[in-house]
Amino acid sequence: MLYLFLAPAVILVFLFNYVPMYGVTIAFKDFSPTRGIMASEWVGLTHFTNFLQSPNFHQIFMNTIKLSAFELLIGFPIPIILALMLNQVRKANLKKNIQLVIYAPHFISAVVIGGMIFLFLSPAGPINALLSVFLDRPISFMSDPDYFRTIFIASGIWQGAGFASIIYVAALSNSDPQLHDAATIDGASLLQRIWHIDVQVLKPVMAVLFILAVGGIMGVGFEKAYLLQTDMNLPASEIIDTYVYKRGLQAGDWSFGAAVGLFNSVVSLMLLMSVNYVVKRFNGETLY
Questions:
Q1: Do 152 and 229 form a contact (C-beta atoms < 8 A)?
Q2: Least C-beta-crowded within 10 Å: which of 50, 60, 119, 140?
Q3: Phi, psi (5° rounding) for residue 29?
């Protein structure tokens, strides 16, 4: 009887997660909506070869890797630091107010975030108004490719770091207060107690979340990247997801878009398995 309760969830996962995988075959065909998937001509790896040999491949691939890698390296430790800091706040009301402030940006939509960024960083915006004290002319932040990665990563950390710290705050609730009391009696400083007690509690969670983060390293985030794109910053802002959208949906090249998307997924899977293996060897924590 217990398996019957599980059956609806299994059926839904099968229908919406596994059955649609059949559509991936259009990446290996010259898909035509009028002929359908089965009747479309089989072209094998042609679309993959065209993408790998295209003049834009290196730039698009490196933009995706750089954005994801920098966001991971810079953004991954910040939720941990926030959780450790929140764990030291003893006044319940103050802690709740701080959590409210740092969690709130997560619930702002990507469209609103994009509008705020353009508003604040425009030549007539408040940021350039402050910089006018030191500079002779305003900076076109959204038109200069050199600023795009910094803007993208900084806004992502501001929006998501607070909410991401929830998992670490929950994990720290399992920390034994008696260990802190004993360490304090033995003369351990605050930093020593955080490193030897709190961080050790977080290590299993950190390992699993790091593996998952690396697995999604190729999925930078289509919405914000597309919203922050301008004709001038394309050399830094064009990533695989936005390229798939333009070629696959806007240009109607369904097969090529599916091939690029499948290539992106395969690279993500390889990264996930590689990092999972490395973390397992060094830390013992693993997803499987």
A1: no
A2: 119
A3: -130, 165
- Identify the bridge partners of residue 104 per DSSP, sorted by sequence position: none
What confidence tens digit (pLDDT) does each residue in 177-208 have?
888 889 888 888 888 988 988 998 898 888 88
Burial (CB < 10 A; 0-12, 13-18, 19+), residue 50, is middle
> Can you give the pLDDT at residue 275?
80
Enter the tokens of residue 234. Answer: 């394309």
Cβ-proximal residues to 287 (8 Å cutoff; 6+ apart), any chain? 208, 211, 212, 272, 276
- The parts of the chain modelled with pLDDT lower than 70 are 283-288
For residue 286, the model assigns a pLDDT of: 57
Q: Are 76 and 160 in contact (CB under 8 A)?
A: no
Within 8 A by CB and 6+ apart from 82, the residues are 102, 161, 162, 165, 168
- In 3D, which of 263, 158, 288, 282 has the Cα closest to residue 212? 288
CA 272 to chain centre: 14
